[in-house]
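SAMPLE LOG
Freezer: B-3
Tube label: C17
Construct: single chain, 445 aa
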Amino acid sequence: MKERYYLNFEIALSAILANKFRSLLTALGIIFGVAAVIAMLAIGNGAKQEILEQIKLVGVNNIVITPVSEQKEEKVKDEIVLPKQKKFSPGLSIMDAQSIAAVLPCVDKISPEVVIETNFVAGGLSRTGKLVGVEPSYFEIAGFSLEEGSLFNQKQLINGEQVCIIGKGIQSKFFSQENPLGKFIKCGSVWLKVIGTIKERLISKSSISNLGIRDYNMDIYTPLKTIFIRYQNRTLITKSSLHENNNDESGSDAESNKKPENHNQIDRLVIQVRKTENLNGAAEVISRLMLRKHAGVSDYEITIPELLLKQQQRTKDIFNIVLGAIAGISLLVGGIGIMNIMLASVLERIKEIGIRLSIGATKKDIVLQFLIESVLISLTGGIAGVILGVLISLLVAQIAGITTIISFFSIALSFGVSALIGLIFGYAPANKAAEQDPIKSLRYE
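STRUCTURE (predicted):
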C-alpha cells in the first residue's frame, strides 16, 4: 500500500518538475495570497499591541481634565458690539479635585499635577526639563514602579519638603557613576534631595506624539505642596500679577498680542474610577460640576483616553478585517487558478491517464495523483508565501516605522488554508481525470 502511494507521489512530482514554469505561474496566486495574509495580520497585531501599550501609558479607567484658554470672539470691522460682562473663573485648582472626590462615590484615586519647565543642575552638568508636582496617587494611576528609595511620606507632603523622585533618564544623565539616593539636584533655584528613582519606562516616539505625553524618564517629581510653597502658586495674588492685570486693562496693542498668563493652580487633573462602565457617567457628572464651579466658563477640557484609544482600536480592527478579507480573496483566486491549470493538465494528459488505467492503475490512483499535484503546488506556494510575507512585514516595520508582530498563528493559518485550497480546488480536476474511459483515452490524439 505504501509503495502505491509513493509511486503516485513520484508521478505527481515528475509532472510538476516537467512543467516548472507553468507550476510556478499556478502557484503565484497562493504565494501572494499567503504573503498578504501574513503581512496584514502582522500589521494588525502590531497596531493592537501599540494601542494596548498606549492604554497602559495613559492609565486604565482615567478621566483627564486639562485647562484650556477660553475662546474669544473678535469684533468684525465696522460692527458695533455691545460690551459683554466677563465672567470670572478661578481656573483648574485643588478645590476642583476635592469637590469631585466628595461628589462622586465611584472615584478611586485623584491625581492633581503641576508642571514647571525649569533648569536642572547637578555634578557640573545642566539641562532643561520638567519638574512635576504630584501626590503619591500619581504613581499608582500612571503605573510607575520604584527602582530604589521610597515615595513621599506624610510629613514631606504636608510640609512641602525639598525632596524629589527622579526618572531613569535623569539618573543616567546626572548620576551615572553613583547612587543618586541622598544626593541633591538643583531644580530652578531650589536644591532637592533625591529620595527615590523610578524604573525605566520605554515610550515610543509615536506614543509621545499621538498621546501628547511627556518622556517620563526625563522628569523630576516633587510633592505638590513643595511646588506651591517653594516655586509658584498661581492662585495667589501678587504685586506682579496685579501690575500685569492693570497693563491688560490699558488695551495697548503690545499687550493685546501678549500670551495670556496661566491662572490655573494645577495643569492637569486625573480622576481614576473603579469600573470602566462608570467612565461616561462620571465624565458627565464632572462636566456639570466643573461648569457650575467655573461660573459657566468652559476653560477646561475633559477627555477619556482609554475610550478614545479603544475606539481607535475598533476602527483599526475593522480596517484589518477588510484587508484580511481582501488577502483571503487573493488566496481564493489562487485556488481557482490551480483548478483551471489542473483541468487543462487533464486534457493534455488524457493518453497518459488511459495508459495508467490500462496497466492496472485504479481510479483512486488517478485521483490521488492529481490531488497530490495540486496540493504540492499549493504547499510550495504556501512556503514561498510565508517567506515573502515575513520579509514584507519586516520591510514595512523598517521603512514605514510601523510596529509589526508576526505570530505563529498567522503563519499556521495561512499555510493550512493554502494546503486546504490545493485539496479542495484540486479534487474536481482529479475526479475528472479518474472518470476517463481507458479505451477512449488510448485513442485520444
